[in-house]
Amino acid sequence: MSDKNIPSKEDFARAKAAMGKNDQGLSEVRAQVLMRVKSKGLHELFVLYSPRSRTFGVYVFYRWDREIDEAAKSGLAEEIRSAVFDELEKAGRGDKGSIQVDFEFDSHESVERDYEGNYFNRLH
């Protein structure tokens, strides 16, 4: 393998900076949404950004499978969607009309059952 194929320290620094820019503000978005709706039945939330598709992926987890339908019927799912858009806009990630967000609703129960409790495996 030639040295031409090995990324330089500068290449790694640029990649790290780009990744940091992609994730900018997302931990705050997550924290704010959890703070707003956790007491209403939200168990966990992950917010990821894909620079390739320029979309956000939001993974919403309730505690139990049955809560997925209950949240849709009660309006909680829509409240979570709205909170995500509000917080992404506050974080400077775009205005509500231009942000592309794909939501997935699931449960901790299914992560335990299907992924041995491993959220990393569930998200991939």
Number of strands: 3
Helix proportion? 40-55%
- Would you identify the regions where 5 or more consecutive residues have pLDDT less than 50? none
Report mean pLDDT, rounded to a whole number. 89
Number of helices: 6
Structural classification = alpha+beta
Question: Which features does this protein show?
Answer:
6 helices; 124 residues; alpha+beta
Secondary structure blueprint with pairings:
Layout: H1 9-23, H2 26-37, E1 42-50, E2 55-62, H3 66-74, H4 76-90, E3 101-107, H5 108-115, H6 119-123
Parallel strand pairs: 2-3
Antiparallel strand pairs: 1-2
Helix pairs in contact: 2-4
Description:
- The chain is α+β, with helices and mostly antiparallel strands.
- The protein contains 6 helices and 3 strands; from the N terminus they run ααββααβαα.
- It has helices at residues 9-23, 26-37, 66-74, 76-90, 108-115, 119-123; strands at residues 42-50, 55-62, 101-107.
- It has a 3-stranded mixed beta sheet.
- A hairpin with a 4-residue loop joins strand 1 and strand 2 (55-62).
- The two termini are 31 Å apart.
- The model has no long low-confidence stretch (mean pLDDT 89).
Summarize the structure.
The chain has 6 helices and 3 strands; from the N terminus they run H-H-E-E-H-H-E-H-H.
